[in-house]
Amino acid sequence: MVLPPELIAHAARLGAVRLRDLMAADRDRADALLISHAGIEFDCSKQRLDGASITALVAHLEDAGFGARREALLTGAIVNESEHRPALHMAYRHGATLEGADVTHLVDRTQAETRAFAQQVRTGQFKPAGKAVARIINIGIGGSDLGPRLVADALADHAEAGPDLRFVASLDPSELARTVAGADPETLLFVIASKSFSTQETLMTAQAARDWMAGQVGLEQAGRHFAAASAARDKAITFGINPDHIFDFPDWVGGRYSVWSAVGLSLEIGLGPDVFAALRDGAQSMDKHFATAPLARNLPVMKALVDFWNRAVLGYPSRCVAAYSARLGLLPGYLQQLEMESLGKSVTADGLPSGMPGGALVWGGCGTEVQHSFFQWLHQGSDATPVDFIGIGRHFASSDPRERVLAANMAAQGAALLDGVQLPPGNDPAGAAQKSMPGGRVSSILLLDDLTPATLGALLALHEHKVFVESVLYGINPFDQWGVELGKVLTKGILDGELSGYDASTRAMLARTGFVPE
Ligand SMILES: O=P(O)(O)OC[C@H]1O[C@H](O)[C@H](O)[C@@H](O)[C@@H]1O
């Protein structure tokens, strides 16, 4: 892929204009660059973009074959070429037009099964050791952790009364110890979430959990405290999970898109099936919008075009996500996997260099806390970086002053990045220079009417689709992740003590630390 000369020309034209002047030149800009759907408003009026450049971006997307590619995605064609699979996670929210009844049947069956099991656990009908479950511990990593963990935290205030929900992803033994601390072992349910059921960290932690349970309730009883969500039912059975408590899903649900599938089991139990269903409904609404809205008024498409513009045309290497809601504190981490595992590539499906940079580095944190840490760098550092502000619209008119102040801070940060300040030198030129801020720094706002299961679902689906659109612009497959494999292979070599092929630095470190192979 190459950038069309029109986009480069627009970048040069817009780069020569002060951002404030660009805004002042068009009185309708704030409305024109605002797109809303499913309780989410996307405001990109503080971006270095105008109508002509957006028209050129849309044309470029069409030229890149977006129409056919989106059709392929939504109808279950093979869009994950290197793994020969469709990517039909939308089926779990009934947001894709599926070919054949099989897929719908499969989705409906699993959803009925997980809902029924969740109800049994929540009502105390399911008693692994004669007592109702009081705590669920999700053991998983990557997509089997980040999505469920984010949703659990984001919707904690919406949870219907039910068991407590915890997560373990780390191999560090202290994590598992922490999640079981204070619990009555007889009231625990471990949900092993692993698409492949072969991820080393997850299996080792699951084994440690089972050993711990065996020590508490006896070997025979321990197995009753385990359920699984996996695309590899046979492996879960081999591990020893009761087949009745294994909830499967097909391999065409990618790990980082799997929260909607049986991987959401711990959420369905912990938050309640209706909350989980509302999350899916919100995502489905975004799916429909993505499938049908005109490109220039299509929220995921426009978000993708803005992010592509900043990354590939203007050349910003990263994007900061600042969530002005404590409940969305895990969003940057979730987006890191979704975006960087999907777009961190530079080879096309045909195996050729894409000629494009691939997706941006994503990083961020929670406002206002981050204003007291890295925002200094955003305001006065030498690397201007686009920021996504994620806020809650209700806060602006809240009766709680803390929420109003939170919202006002978010608005102020976007304005400060845009405006900057130039202090007159006066009789302290050095001080004035140090206190001045360049401004002209771009940002977007994603404003949720309120944080609800439906708006959260829509927000996650928005980002999933945005990533897909970007993948078309970068000419890459967003659904595989071969880059994570080599590390797994080399870990095995180290554990096996087969070090002859390793570099001198690694071998020296292992020797120095007295590492003992298995
Ligand atoms: O769900 P699992 O099969 O255990 O996989 C967990 C994670 O590990 C892999 O290495 C991938 O990089 C992730 O995309 C995946 O989500």
TrEMBL record:
InterPro entries: G6P_Isomerase, G6P_Isomerase_C, Phosphoglucose_isomerase_CS, SIS_dom_sf, SIS_PGI_1, SIS_PGI_2. Pfam families: PGI (PF00342). Its main location: cytoplasm. The keyword Cytoplasm applies. Keywords: Cytoplasm, Gluconeogenesis, Glycolysis, Isomerase. Pathway: Carbohydrate degradation; glycolysis; D-glyceraldehyde 3-phosphate and glycerone phosphate from D-glucose: step 2/4; Carbohydrate biosynthesis; gluconeogenesis. The keyword Isomerase applies. It is found in: Cytoplasm. One of its GO terms (molecular function) is glucose-6-phosphate isomerase activity. GO terms for biological process: gluconeogenesis; glucose 6-phosphate metabolic process; glycolytic process. The active site is at residues 341, 372, 488. It comes from the Bacteria. One of its GO terms (cellular component) is cytosol. It catalyses: alpha-D-glucose 6-phosphate = beta-D-fructose 6-phosphate. Its EC number is 5.3.1.9. PANTHER family: GLUCOSE-6-PHOSPHATE ISOMERASE (PTHR11469:SF1). Catalyzes the reversible isomerization of glucose-6-phosphate to fructose-6-phosphate. Belongs to the GPI family. This is Glucose-6-phosphate isomerase. It comes from Maricaulis salignorans.
